[in-house]
Amino acid sequence: MPIFLKVTPMRCELPENVQKYSETPTYTDTTVPAGLLRDHSTKAGVWGKLVVTDGHLFYLRDDCPAQRVDEGAPAVIHPEEKHFIRVPAPVSFRVEFYRVMP
Hints:
Blueprint: E1 7-8, E2 19-23, E3 27-28, E4 47-61, E5 66-70, E6 75-77, E7 83-86, E8 91-99
Parallel strand pairs: 1-5
Antiparallel strand pairs: 2-8, 3-8, 4-5, 4-6, 4-7, 4-8
């Protein structure tokens, strides 16, 4: 069944003072963990970057229009902000995690 969402462009703007410290494995539409498909959030001080390597997916946050995330145009995940994704078609992606390093 197709998913119909109001979609707006997504921009990637991590703060300048954060550094990558971890990332998930590459997931596909058949291996995406169920937890990413329902509301969840990062911890305090942890930023995420949703990086699509093939296809596209939708990134959804409370009180915001759906964001289409395509290859080459990652989405920024803000600390403690509830969000989830929708995977309407074949896709490959990973999530990178960033924080201010001491």
